[in-house]
Amino acid sequence: MLLLFNMMTWRDTVQVTENKLENATVELKIEVPVNTVELEYKSVFNEIQKNARIAGFRKGKVPLQIIEQKFIEKADYEVTENLLRSVYVDVITEKKLTPINNPDFDFDKIQRGKPFSFTVRFEIAPTVDLGEYKDLPVEQKRCEIKDKDIDREIESLREQHADISKKEGDTVVDNGDLVKIKIKRIDNMDPSEIEKTAYKDYTIIAGKSNEDYTFDKYIIGMKEGEEKEVEIRYPRKYEVSDLAGQKASYLIRIEEISTMTLPELDDEFAKDLGEHSSLGELRESIRKNLQDYVDNRINHEAKTELLKKVVEKSSFDIPETMVRNEMESSFQRFQQRIGFAARDINEFTSALGVNADEFLATLRTDALESIKSMLVLSEIARQEKLEVDQQRYREVLEGFAKENNKTVEEVENIIEENNSKSGIESELLVQQALNLVYDRAQVKRGKVMSYEEFMKKE
Question: Which residues span the domain enclosing 227?
Answer without folding.
Answer: 163-261
